[in-house]
């Protein structure tokens, strides 16, 4: 798959995803925190399926 998640977007997804998972594990925010798994996965893989239909990309132009 073509990468469509750039550096700053990627870092923000990883940090936010990890924070949400941590909060879900501690019970601070409940089950909604598991959405962090999606953020973490898209950050680590640098691919966001939601961007694909719209042709969005936060990667620098080649």
What's this, in brief?
By secondary structure, the protein is mostly helical. It is 48% helix and 0% strand.
Topology:
Blueprint: H1 7-26, H2 36-45
Helix pairs in contact: 1-2
Description:
With 62 residues, the chain is mostly helical. It has a domain at 7-44. It has helices at 7-26, 36-45. The mean pLDDT is 94. It is elongated, with a radius of gyration of 13 Å.
Task: Provide keyphrases for this structure.
62 residues, mainly alpha, 2 helices
Could you estimate the helical fraction of the residues in percent?
A: 40-55%
User: Main sheet, how many strands, which sense, barrel?
Assistant: none
Binned strand content: under 5%
Q: Structural class given helices, strands, pairing?
A: mainly alpha
Record field, number of beta strands: 0
Terminal CA distance reads: 16 Å
What is the average per-residue confidence, as pLDDT, rounded to a whole number? 94
Helix count, DSSP H or I runs of 4 or more residues: 2
Radius of gyration: 13 Å
Dominant shape: elongated
Name the helix and strand elements from N-terminus to C-terminus, one letter apiece: HH
Poorly predicted regions are none
């Amino acid at each position: 798959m073509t990468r469509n998640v750039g550096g700053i977007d990627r870092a923000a997804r990883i940090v936010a995803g990890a924070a949400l998972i941590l909060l879900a594990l501690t019970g601070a925010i409940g089950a909604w925190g598991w959405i962090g798994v999606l953020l973490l996965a898209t950050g680590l893989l640098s691919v966001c399926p939601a961007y694909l239909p719209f042709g969005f990309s936060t990667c620098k132009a080649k």
